[in-house]
């Protein structure tokens, strides 16, 4: 991925040098030209096209903000109710993530959303113990984590 980024920047600066256009428009045109050239030659690179990973990172950040707002609204809704109708509890979650970095990122994303907090990670790093504010449907919570955070992390790292 780093090689593709450096190659794209080299193409960009060669384009700017050849056109004698040292401004933002010249940089953008050269960068887009570099993207097209690298995209056309991507079968010669062993790793996938770097823009795919950059796009996945932006999607992960957008997912984090969306989940943060959604969970905050749910917590505020529970607080405003005259009578608390929550069942806090701890559930286990088996993850498919393998590296330390991926599991750490998953724990950070879970803890940033209000109402949930990873308490412990098992020794083999495959099982997380998570405290949730409302644990009415344990399987739904597991599916939400797997289909949102874990899926987005796998798109970025693999």
| Number of continuous helical runs | 5
Uncertain regions spanning at least 5 consecutive residues: none
Q: Which structural class do the helices and strands define? A: mainly alpha
Number of strands: 3
The main sheet comes to: 3 strands, antiparallel
What average pLDDT do the residues reach?
A: 90
Instruction: Trace the largest sheet across and list its strands.
Output: 1-3-2
| Beta-strand content estimate | 5-15%
What is the percent of helical residues?
Answer: 55-70%
Outline the structure in words.
It is a single chain. The chain has helices at 2-19, 24-40, 50-80, 100-112, 138-157; strands spanning 89-94, 116-121, 127-132. It is mainly alpha-helical. The protein has a three-stranded antiparallel β-sheet with strand order 1-3-2, with helices on one face. β2 (116-121) and β3 form a beta hairpin. α3 packs antiparallel against α5 (138-157) and α4 (100-112) packs across α5 (138-157). The radius of gyration is 22 Å and the shape is elongated.
Key structural traits:
158 residues; mainly alpha; elongated
Q: How does the SSE layout of this entry go?
A:
Blueprint: H1 2-19, H2 24-40, H3 50-80, E1 89-94, H4 100-112, E2 116-121, E3 127-132, H5 138-157
Antiparallel strand pairs: 1-3, 2-3
Helix pairs in contact: 1-2, 3-5, 4-5
Task: Give the gist of this structure.
This protein is mainly alpha-helical and 158 residues long.
């Amino acid at each position: 991925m780093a090689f593709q980024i450096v190659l794209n920047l080299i193409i960009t600066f060669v384009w700017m040098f050849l056109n004698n256009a040292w401004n933002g428009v010249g940089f953008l045109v050269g960068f887009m030209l570099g993207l097209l050239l690298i995209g056309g030659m991507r079968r010669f690179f062993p790793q996938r096209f770097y823009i795919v990973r950059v796009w996945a990172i932006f999607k992960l950040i957008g997912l984090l903000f969306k989940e943060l707002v959604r969970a905050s609204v749910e917590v505020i809704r529970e607080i405003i109710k005259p009578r608390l109708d929550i069942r806090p509890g701890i559930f286990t979650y088996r993850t498919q993530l393998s590296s330390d970095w991926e599991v750490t990122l998953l724990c950070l994303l879970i803890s940033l959303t209000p109402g949930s907090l990873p308490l412990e990670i098992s020794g083999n790093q495959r099982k997380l113990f998570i405290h949730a504010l409302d644990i009415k449907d344990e399987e739904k919570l597991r599916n939400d984590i797997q289909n949102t955070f874990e899926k987005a992390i796998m798109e970025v790292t693999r």
